[in-house]
């Protein structure tokens, strides 16, 4: 009993610094931001309490709804793009051969790069005059397909989503490879004896065994897509005409460009609420499916 108490005390003391850092740099700023969301504050001077006025203005602003729509496009593209591609690559690269290790490193490499660098690289790829994409299309005789990819409101959000997905497949690849390697050989042998091979093994043995990791990956996709910022700021700045505006860039512009700190705090609170709602819906859907 005494030994168990000592172990728990040691664990609590070991975790205390990390918990304090998390509370100071995450929980307290969130609470502080929620508090200022009820005020009209320019960053200097006295803050005027206005209740839910910031939220009313937000819900009446068409740019907010456009930013929310764009974020939802990113969420869907991340779930449809990052998770299935990472899972497919994990299945193909599961064997620990030299060639597979090289491919894994290549897939993970974009994650090592700064998001600003990724945005600049893809900005040059999409450049209508000197961009690689248009040059390739011209070379293979598809001149009619060339366009200003980041300036066309019909496609620029999808163009923005590609580099974001490209840069974030790596971590999910590592997660899925670790989960697949964690499946015991006894389970695989039993599945083989029962005749579960190919797609049957994938859907009735492999996926159920790693389903928790798939759910974690989807949650990370949702949270990551809702806080996307750097790629868009570098490639488009939210333009043209707010056609690629995201919730994070909308919050940034209102807070640090026009100095509406109270309004920006309300937007940040709304981002948290939307994230919690989508993650909760994901939990309900995946729980029923599992």
Automatic annotation (TrEMBL):
GO terms for biological process: transmembrane transport. CDD domains: TM_PBP2. Residues 68-282 form the ABC transmembrane type-1 domain. Coiled coil: none annotated. SUPFAM superfamilies: MetI-like. It comes from Paenibacillus pinisoli. This is Sugar ABC transporter permease. Keywords: Cell membrane, Membrane, Transmembrane, Transmembrane helix, Transport. It comes from the Bacteria. The chain crosses the membrane at residues 12-35, 72-94, 106-125, 155-181, 202-226, 261-285. Gene3D superfamilies: MetI-like. GO terms for cellular component: plasma membrane. Belongs to the binding-protein-dependent transport system permease family. It is a multi-pass membrane protein. It holds the Pfam family BPD_transp_1. It is found in: Cell membrane.
């Amino acid at each position: 009993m005494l030994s168990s108490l000592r172990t728990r005390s040691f664990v609590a003391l070991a975790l205390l610094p990390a918990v304090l850092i998390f509370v100071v740099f995450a929980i307290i700023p969130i609470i502080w931001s929620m508090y200022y969301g009820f005020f009209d504050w320019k960053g200097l001077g006295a803050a005027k309490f206005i209740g839910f006025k910031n939220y009313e203005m937000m819900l009446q602003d068409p740019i907010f709804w456009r930013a929310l729509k764009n974020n939802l496009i990113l969420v869907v593209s991340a779930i449809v793009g990052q998770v299935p591609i990472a899972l497919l690559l994990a299945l193909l690269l599961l064997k620990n051969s030299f060639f597979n290790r090289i491919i894994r490193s290549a897939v993970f490499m974009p994650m090592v790069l700064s998001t600003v660098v990724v945005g600049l690289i893809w900005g040059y790829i999409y450049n209508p005059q000197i961009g690689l994409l248009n040059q390739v299309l011209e070379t293979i005789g598809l001149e009619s397909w060339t366009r200003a990819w980041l300036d066309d409101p019909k496609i620029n959000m999808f163009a923005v989503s590609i580099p974001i997905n490209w840069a974030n497949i790596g971590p999910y690849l590592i997660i899925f490879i670790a989960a697949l390697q964690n499946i015991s050989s006894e389970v695989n042998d039993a599945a083989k004896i029962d005749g579960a091979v190919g797609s049957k093994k994938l859907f009735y043995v492999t996926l159920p065994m790693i389903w928790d990791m798939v759910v974690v990956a989807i949650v990370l996709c949702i949270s990551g897509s809702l806080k996307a910022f750097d790629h868009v700021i570098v490639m488009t700045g939210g333009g043209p005409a707010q056609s690629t505006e995201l919730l994070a860039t909308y919050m940034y512009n209102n807070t640090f460009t026009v100095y509406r700190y109270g309004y920006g705090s309300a937007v940040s609170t709304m981002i948290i609420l939307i994230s919690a709602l989508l993650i909760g819906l994901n939990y309900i859907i995946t729980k029923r499916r599992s």
